[in-house]
Amino acid sequence: MSGFEHHRKSGRVIATFSGFEADLLRSLASQMIELLRNERAEPPGPSADPFEALMVEFSGATSPPDDPVLARLFPTAYPDDEEAASDFRRFTEGGLRDGKAAASGLLIDTLEDAGLPPELNEEGLVIDVELTRAEADSWMRAFTDIRLALATRLGVEAGDEDYWHSLPDDDPRAQAHDIYEWVGYLQETVIEALTS
Questions:
Q1: Cβ contact 89:61 at 8 Å
Q2: What is the pTM of this model?
Q3: Strands 5-7, 12-18: parallel, antiparallel or unpaired by DSSP?
Q4: 125: helix, coil or strand?
Q5: What whole-number distance in Å separates Cα of residue 22 and Cα of residue 136?
Q6: Which of 24, 83, 98, 135 is disulfide-compatible with 131, CB 3.0–4.6 A?
Q7: Per the record, a Pfam family (predicted)?
Q8: Residues 6+ apart with CB under 8 A from 68
Q9: Residues facing residue 5 across a β-bridge
Q10: Residue 67: Cβ-neighbour burial (10 angstroms; 0-12, 13-18, 19+)
């Protein structure tokens, strides 16, 4: 995998993945969608207020998510103003979750449309991906979310590269960190391709 490149003639952003890489990306994106949908951003129950019942599309969670990854993906907008933070979350979090799930869903759909089978059994499979600028932007956002989720689960902090590189290759944390770095590489190459 050499990363994403901008194809000047077609204007598309292109990349080639091995079957294993494409399947890994699909798995990461699927896990992101599951996480986003598992802990719903919905109010606890029906409202007795008739006006509020009419405004159901503006009814959402008012407190931060319990899951640490979701709390990082949807941080508190106004840390010093609980009421404003609650209102902001209620009006925006549901739509933000939908947008993040759609970005990961597009990643999965694109890989499968490019030939990734439902079950990866074939060795030597190569998946060529060609993205419009809008699709590449969506992939970049999916990579951002996946990378943030991995960093949160692993406890990655700024300046801790020596720790991660000191772990033995067979340590599952080192392997997960390698995936985190790989997704970061993909993210960088998409940005470069979009700005070239």
A1: yes
A2: 0.87
A3: antiparallel
A4: coil
A5: 15
A6: 135
A7: DUF2017
A8: 152, 153
A9: 14
A10: middle
Q: Which bin fits 159, alpha (ψ -120 to 50), beta or left (φ > 0)?
A: left
Query: From residue 166, how far is each of 156, 170, 180 by CA, in Å?
Result: 14, 12, 16
Give the integer Cα–Cα distance in Å for 65 and 109: 28
Tens digit of pLDDT for each residue in 120-132?
Answer: 888 889 999 999 9
- How far apart are the C-alpha atoms of 56 and 88, rounded to whole Å? 15
Is the Cβ–Cβ distance between 1 and 15 less than 8 Å?
A: yes
Q: φ, ψ for residue 173 (rounded to 5)?
A: -65, -40
Contact by Cβ (8 Å): 133, 13: yes
Written as six digits, the tokens of 82 are 């609980």
Residue 101 is which amino acid? A
Token pair of 183 as six digits: 């997704």
Residue among 6, 22, 2 nearest 127 (CA): 22
Residue 108: other Cβ atoms inside 10 A: 20
Domain range summary for the chain, segments of one domain joined by +: 5-38+95-195
Spatial contact of 87 and 77, defined as CB atoms under 8 Å apart? no
What are the pLDDT digits (tens) for 43-81? Answer: 444 555 555 554 545 567 888 999 999 999 999 999 999
Short-list 118, 100, 112, CA closest to 37: 100
Residue with tokens 């840390």: 79
Phi and psi, residue 127, nearest 5°: -115, 115
